[in-house]
Design brief:
The complex is a heterodimer of chains A (274) and B (302).
Chain A: H1 5-33, H2 56-63, H3 66-97, H4 103-114, H5 118-131, H6 138-146, H7 149-159, H8 164-172, H9 177-188, H10 190-206, H11 209-214, H12 223-233, H13 238-258, H14 260-272
Chain B: H1 5-48, E1 51-53, E2 59-61, H2 65-72, H3 74-105, H4 112-124, H5 127-137, H6 144-151, H7 167-191, H8 196-204, H9 209-237, H10 241-246, H11 258-268, H12 272-301
Antiparallel strand pairs in B: 1-2
The chains are: A mainly alpha (274), B mainly alpha (302).
């Protein structure tokens, strides 16, 4: 073995160790979800379940309100994503393709709030939501998530890469600004829209704090809130808790695997051009 | 050719007015929601912090009273101290790990694409599930982590989230595990911008791997490192959901952080005014740290 090959082997070992460290907790979760409750914590650890208990995946639907939680979450995620795409791309067009006084100051206000922790204005926000009588309705979460600055920022980054000459040509041909947005910008920005859609979808699906503050009635709970209450209520049902966790993660993992390219691009643009 | 200056100006004025109307029309749907739910609450915060709320939901002006109470409030200082503790370890640890992973993935190795996908998993997984898995893994008596520790010869492995001394390290490790894939991706994008010729030139000059890292990679990554540090700092100071679901601030107050203290005061004790005063501290903390980082960055790039 030559000296030059050694660093390469070290690199592979590092990669393998890191891969195991990242994946092992997920592997353990899936294995535990297929065990009986008593077999989850054994000494020594059973890394491979010899006799999988598939029943857990049937029982979870009757033991918990999984159906309600998933239904609410799917509805919310879809609606929020739709609204965020619509209002975000609309506003981004105004910010990047129409020049008017005060525009840049306004955009700075948008970006500035991205750095303000949500926790620091959640109290006044809650008071306002109470005044609008939105608390304990599904609309509170829609209002909370659908008008984020992130969507505007992401779409603006993308629109800036579309040459103004293209728009000017359309304007000379008599196309209205709205027509340009709908017929030219939207079709061109499908990749950016896909990135934003995936990120919003996953964020809304995973959000725990918003629903925790605003959704009190159990029939409104999302999957995160439901899973947490299930954990608190049946804190010794280890296997079922892991089953619920697998089910809460699964849709996001599938979405991520299919749209990984857009996801990574989205993170890279919002991250690096800031 | 009798177009007067006044007429040109008027025409330009009309275009500006038209564009302003159009621009606002495009902004409006998002802006209305953004103003009501973000801008106005941020503004109100600076009023609420100087008020006290009665049971009927009315606010009375109390001046600096909330802040005077804050100075004497031991729980507040604990929360502030814990937040700084968390940030002081989470920031350098995550920076090191994510940069290390990015350097590893930037090499031409087999399986790199697979690992990039995998490293992102924790970041897209919900915090509730993550916290639960790790709480079980770290369970002191029968958890796999302590079992492995005992196996390699640690006689008394830590109690992790059940021990006041070890709960914060446990949270820091889990949140680093969760965040590293995200920051790794940012670093990877940054590494891609460093021209290959620089590395080749350094190699021709006989620079070793470590020298090349110090003289080529690190300076080339400066903008990325700066951006990641700012992001990481803000995200560390606002740490919230992982604490809430993993330890709920405990045992005792050993992992109580500022965000959670706001949550307790505001939504468990309904002290909106006092919670807003704590909010201002959190807000100021993030603001000041960001400003300092920008100033340091500007001086260093000169």
């Amino acid at each position: 073995m030559s000296i030059r090959r050694v660093p390469r082997i070290v690199a592979y070992v590092c990669l393998a160790v890191a891969g195991v460290l990242v994946l092992l907790p997920f592997y353990w979760m899936v294995m535990s979800s297929l065990k009986t409750n008593n077999d989850v914590f054994t000494i020594p650890v059973q890394w491979i379940t010899t006799d999988p208990v598939w029943n857990n995946y049937a029982d979870i639907w009757t033991e918990s309100d999984m159906t309600t939680w998933l239904g609410n979450t799917v509805f919310l995620s879809a609606l929020v994503t739709f609204l965020q795409l619509l209002t975000g791309s609309f506003a981004a067009y105004g910010f990047s393709k129409i020049t008017f006084p005060g525009r840049d100051v306004l955009f700075l206000a948008y970006i500035g709030t991205l750095a303000v922790p949500w926790a620091s204005y959640m109290v006044p926000q809650f008071v306002l939501m109470t005044k609008f009588e939105l608390t304990d309705t599904i609309w509170s979460i829609v209002a909370l998530q659908a008008f984020g600055a992130l969507g505007v920022f992401m779409m603006k980054q993308f629109y800036e890469s579309i040459p103004d000459e293209l728009l000017d040509a359309a304007r000379i041909d008599g196309m209205s600004e709205f027509g340009i947005y709908r017929r030219i910008m939207l079709p061109l920005s499908v990749p950016a829209l896909a990135s934003l859609a995936l990120i919003t979808l996953v964020n809304t699906w995973n959000d725990y704090l918003g629903p925790l503050l605003y959704l009190r009635s159990p029939d409104l709970w999302t999957i995160q809130l439901g899973l947490k209450s299930f954990i608190d209520q049946y804190n010794a049902e280890y296997a079922l808790i892991m089953t619920g966790s697998v089910l809460s993660i699964l849709p996001v993992v599938v979405i991520f695997l299919f749209g990984q390219r857009y996801f990574v691009e989205g993170v890279a643009t919002t991250g690096l051009k800031g | 050719m009798t177009t007067t200056v006044a007429e040109t100006r008027r025409r330009r004025g009309r275009v500006v007015a038209r564009n302003t109307a159009l621009g606002w029309a495009f902004l409006l749907p998002n802006f209305a929601g953004f103003t009501l739910l973000t801008l106005v609450p941020v503004g109100l915060l600076f009023y609420y912090a100087f008020t006290e709320w009665n049971v009927f939901g009315g606010a009375t002006w109390t001046g600096l009273e909330n802040f005077q109470q804050l100075v004497r409030d031991n729980s507040f200082w604990t929360a502030l101290g814990n937040t700084v503790y968390y940030a002081a370890f989470h920031i350098p640890l995550t920076l090191a790990v994510s940069l290390g992973l990015a350097l590893l993935l930037n090499r031409k190795l087999r399986g790199v694409a697979f690992f990039r996908t995998v490293a992102f998993f924790p970041y897209i997984t919900s915090i509730v599930a993550i916290a639960q898995i790790w709480n079980m893994l770290l369970s002191p008596g029968f958890g796999p982590v302590n079992e492995v520790l005992r196996f390699i010869g640690v006689a008394n492995p830590p109690g992790w989230t059940t021990s006041a001394d070890w709960s914060m390290p446990a949270v820091i490790v889990v949140s680093t595990w969760r965040d590293m894939g995200y920051y790794m991706l940012l670093f990877l994008a940054g590494l891609q911008t460093i021209p290959k010729q620089l590395h080749e030139a350094a190699m021709v000059d006989g620079a070793g791997a470590w020298d090349r890292f110090r003289a080529v990679t690190l300076p080339g990554l400066r903008p990325t490192t700066f951006f990641v540090t700012v992001l990481l700092t803000i995200n560390s100071f606002k740490v919230f959901d992982i604490i809430l679901v993993m330890t709920d601030g405990g045992p005792g107050q050993s992992t109580l952080v500022l965000s959670q203290y706001i949550f307790q005061k505001g939504f468990e004790e309904n002290q909106f005014g006092y919670a807003s005063a704590v909010s201002i501290v959190l807000f100021a903390l993030c603001f000041v740290v960001t400003i300092i980082q920008f100033m340091v960055n500007r001086r260093a790039t000169r």
